[in-house]
Amino acid sequence: QELCHDIGFAALPRLQEFEPEGLAALASALAKLELHDDVLLKGIARVAMARHSALGPQEVSSLVWAFAKLSEGDGTLFRVLLQDAELEVFGPQNLSTLLWSFAAASLRDQGLAERAAAAACAKLPHFSPQGLSNVALALAKLDAGDRGLFGPLSSEAARKLGHFKPQEASNLVWAFATLGIRDARLFEAVAVEAVTELGGYAPQNLSNLAWAFARLAFEDCSLFATVAEEARAKIESFAPQGLANLAWSFATLGIKDPQLFAVLAGQARSKLGSFTSQNLSNLAWAFGSLRINAPGLFASIARMMASMLAAPVSREPAALSSIASDAGGVVWALNYAGHSDAALEASAPQALPEIGRLLDRAASPLELLPLAPAWDAGGQSSRGATLCQPRMVLDLPDRLVVQKPEDWEVDDTADTSGGRPLSSFLRAALPRRRWPITDQPEHHFGLLHRLDVPSSGLILMAKTHEAYYDLQFQLQSGRLVRGYVVLLHGWWPAGRCDISARVHWDDWGGRSRSAVRRQGKPSRTRFSQLAHAGCSAQGQALGLCRVEIATGRRHQIRVHAAHVGHPTACDGKYASVPTVQSDRSWCPRNFLHRYRLAFHDGAGRARVVREPLSAELVGVLAQLLPRDTDAAMALQTWQRAMLQ
């Protein structure tokens, strides 16, 4: 260290005398030795930028690598050195180094990254395995470049896969998974190679490999059995994030390995003080979703999360939203696993709304004059609403309940599936200047839950962040109740029936549908038979049921009903084509209606909101022939909107 300091001290006043190769070599040496000499580095940067036109590909790539490695500078050096550089003449190693450096320095310059990616694409056959891995990793971290590049990159990587080192292979699939690029052939090839090489995988490589396969719902039994075996042997060397990611990966694929989760629980508890809130949430979700009996671990996670909520490390809005989301994940996991924790249940209902209040203050909505109501006292829109538009059912100071007609979409994220967006309608009534949450996809525009596009019923919405996190806690802890009425094919068994089958949302290849699969998310639906009847038009056996859900997966009720052989009436996605064609002669739309919401308002008072069936669904029930007297009474009750 002393010798290097002396060399640097001697070099500083003579930097102008250095040739480009010497200047780059000096910077690279500092980086390799991890010497953070700010004065010398600033001098090197100043001279390099002044002489950037004289630098060749090797000097440019070495300089940016050195500054990225040492986390020095704000990206100005990168931009100056590369502004006139002809990246087409850069070699594969130089391009790989450039892209790695962009990612390491978190350089958010799409133009530069895309230029380097385009130059790399033309030379992929000449890249080494490490170079291919670095390119994929950099583009994933920067979310840059044409996704079309990953096709040739995949082909070239598959051709050289036998020469990839463990870290290079895990980084490769991690990059594809991060960008959501589901390349089945590449992942199959990686699995075949990795199974025999996992002994050389470090703990982080193992967790990254498992995470990538789980993220894209690729399950390879041999691979994960071997990963579990290797992970058990190396469990003491896993970092907290590696432990959480490994548990999450196995749980996401529905792989319940008792031996692995036993050692995971023990090792996690010993390192829990070093877990981030996201690590805690992922770990709790993994154990909770698989319903693994680990009371000691759950209690430790709950205590740690309660302490984090009591003293957030940052008051920045993004950090507050993150810890609130992570805490909600822990609450959900404990509730789903049937584990209650007094400390978290006492702290979360106060801490989460307090985070919401901080976010409300940070959003600083403008103080506006009172606006004309979007709905009159009778619940009809003052802006020309018709029967096919949403309708206000309950309007409270900080939250509201809206009736969603069919064909409207609860677009609680930036992604939509073609229905009329409910968020746009609500923003017309709740201007974003006064209610900022209505314009924030990261808070689901204030919407608390989904409802399928062809279905109708009640939607709960928060007007403020405080209300949003209060209601999120109620939802995740099972205190918010959603009740539905559905008409099913066949006669549902008498009494109650709980279905616990994991539901996987598949949007690969434009299919956009759910299915019961082991790789799905844990899902639970309770059906209660109300009436058995027949359809006079078609002679079909039908059952009217009341439904409650403990989870809210996409199309959950419809998928669970179809899974057990009782698809909902007129379900164009989960019933057979002949069945749907027959249904449409007597049932104009999918018969699924959310008729009841039970929750607590901002003052802690219990609220129960009900919404009767629409006239067209009542008309459907009027066509049915009840099986017996009890069925006749039930059908009449629902037709008269005397909801129970």
Query: What is the end-to-end distance?
Result: 79 Å
Poorly predicted runs of 5 or more residues: 367-386
Overall body shape: elongated
Mean pLDDT comes to 90
Helix content: 40-55%
How many beta-strand segments? 14
Evaluate the radius of gyration.
Answer: 29 Å
Percent of residues in beta strands:
5-15%
* Category by helix and strand content: alpha+beta
Q: How large is the count of helical segments?
A: 25
Largest sheet: 10 strands, mixed
Summarize the structure.
This protein is 48% helix and 13% strand. With 644 residues, it is α+β, with helices and mostly antiparallel strands. Among the domains are: 163 residues, no CATH class; 91 residues, Pseudouridine synthase, CATH 3.30.2350.10; 163 residues, Pseudouridine synthase, CATH 3.30.2350.
Structure description:
With 644 residues, the protein is an alpha+beta fold. The chain starts with a helix and ends in a 5-residue tail after the last helix. It has helices at 2-11, 20-32, 38-50, 57-69, 76-82, 92-104, 110-121, 129-142, 150-159, 166-178, 184-195, 203-215, 221-234, 240-252, 258-271, 277-289, 295-310, 317-336, 342-363, 422-429, 465-476, 556-563, 577-583, 615-622, 629-639, and strands at residues 391-395, 399-404, 408-409, 420-421, 456-462, 481-489, 496-500, 503-506, 513-516, 524-535, 541-549, 592-600, 606-610, 624-626. It has 25 helices and 14 strands. Among the domains are: 201-363, no CATH class; 389-479, Pseudouridine synthase, CATH 3.30.2350; 481-643, Pseudouridine synthase. Strands 1, 2, 5, 6, 7, 10, 11, 12, 13 and 14 form a ten-stranded mixed sheet that branches. It has a two-stranded parallel ribbon with strand order 3-4. Residues 367-386 have low confidence and may be disordered. It is elongated and about 100 Å long.
